[in-house]
Amino acid sequence: MKITLLLAFLIVFSSAMAQSRDKVTLSGTATHEKIDHIFINEPLLFYTQEPKNLLTCYKQNNQLKGAFGINKPQFVYLSIMLRNWQVYVMPGDTIRFTIDGAGLDAKIKFFGKHAANYQVFGNITDFTGGPQKPSRYIISKELRHNKNNLLNYKITLDKWYKDKNEQLESLLKLYPISKSLTHIARSKIGYYYANSLYSPVSDMAADSVPKEYLNELKKIGFNDDRLLSANEYKYAVYNRYVRFKEIEGTVNLKEIEKKIKSELKGKSKDYAIASLIGACAQRKIPIDDSALSSMIRSAYTEVKDPSYLAYIRESELNYFLLNKPLTDKVLDGTLLTTYSNGMKKSLREVLAVYPGKAVYIDLWASWCGACRVDIAESADAKKWMTENGVAVVYFSLDKDKAAWMKATVSDKIENDQYLVENEFSSELSKFMGITSIPRYLLIDKNHFVKSIFAPRPLESDLTQLKSLVKIF
Counting C-beta atoms within 10 Å of the first and last residue's C-beta, which end of the chain has fewer, N or C? Predict the structure, then answer.
């Protein structure tokens, strides 16, 4: 498959997906001295991804105020120290709340037009991820082969499931919500129960699990695309069709794919296929390249959801391009002019200047206004990278050498500055699919490709950049 075409698709897809986002306003109080800020994060679409932060709001005079943008109704997480609450919000909402206490003892109360939506799902988070969640079953694999151990665990879990369903029904009487959200609320508890059943046997093959326990797992139903907004349902699909093995030994990717296609349909099937590809790309499942390539080719013609397709393409790039060295063709065929002395060097020679160092490459040009704005605002990110062993290097894609040199002086970026010969037609540009700028690349200390769409060098992206650098 042509990596360049995949990269081009990702760039076009990202632009097409950029929509106007309506503002959601946050307004609350937290009196406990240990709470000094609150995070708003989007739930993960797939479990190999990093969470996306929508807002970080710092307390002032016990007040937590801010705003973030969304373009459709969705779940978000409100997070403080040791606690998360998942709530269902709509574009244009105002989330009003008070938080009493801190840590695991913290309690949240919502107010306003859609307070019932927030309160119901906030309480469900207490059931499934807070102080009321069931105890995890963690004992050795050998002990789990004793069916009485697993069945006793199930008895405890059944009691939790019954209690929480009763509590939810009381909650729904107190806070009435729509029929569709009521269905999701009930299902979130049901699929959390399912995931708790899978948890102690996720590293065991089906033929090693006691039949009585396995029969309970088989009763769990899927194929409800309405629930794909709920993390619990998505994780249950992932557990059933990606993590859980039918037999001990080598993974047969074709058999797993066949099982997914025979048992699931619609977006649930597409989600399972995309999740399986993502897990393979992260090397969480041992497979061979040809098996993964075959499944990806099939997915491109069958999966319809744009966000799932984008994830499949990202996964393909992760598997076949990331964490690998640049090719000899790119290293020797990419020529650059050094700003400091006008000498021409190959990319291999340029990278040799930074032995044992990670390299953050800023692709820019004198005519790119957005590039130069990022450069002007990058001081803090550059300082952090320099202090943490990351070399910040500038690759200009200017055609006009004089304009490049003038802008370099004007923007005070004379150090580690290079002009790429053949700009967008260079071997590096073709390999990385560089068709527009600003664009940022990250290469680790072994000079293996770490990110082909690295975070921007701005304060807003610094947390994500730090997380990426910490990986190596």
Answer: N
Instruction: Please state, rounded to an integer, the average pLDDT across all residues of the chain.
Output: 86
Type of residue at 324:
K
Structure tokens at 59: 């307390």
Q: Which of 37 and 16 is assigned the larger pLDDT?
A: 37
Q: Count Cβ atoms below 10 Å from residue 362 Cβ, excluding itself.
A: 25
In the sheet that holds 52-58, the strands lie side by side as 52-58, 37-42, 74-80, 83-89
Rounded Cα gap, residues 110 and 24, in angstroms? 15
Are 6 and 316 within 8 A, CB to CB? yes
Are 366 and 400 contacting, i.e. CB atoms less than 8 angstroms apart?
yes
Structural contact between residues 285 and 251, judged by C-beta atoms closer than 8 angstroms: yes
Four-residue CA torsion sign, 162, 166, 168, 172:
positive
pTM (two decimals): 0.70
Q: How far apart are CA 67 and CA 55, in angstroms?
A: 7
Quote the CA–CA distance of 419 and 405 in Å, as a whole number. 9
Backbone phi, psi, residue 34, to 5°: -75, -15
Q: Are strands 63-70 and 358-364 parallel, antiparallel or unpaired?
A: unpaired
Peptide bond into 438 cis (omega under 30): yes
* Positive or negative: CA dihedral 180, 184, 186, 187: positive
| pLDDT tens-place string over residues 112-147 | 889 999 999 999 998 887 667 776 655 555 556 667
Domains and CATH numbers, the chain: 3-129 (2.60.40.1120), 328-470 (3.40.30.10)
Residue 273 tokens read as: 């296929």
Helix (H) or strand (E) holding 388: none
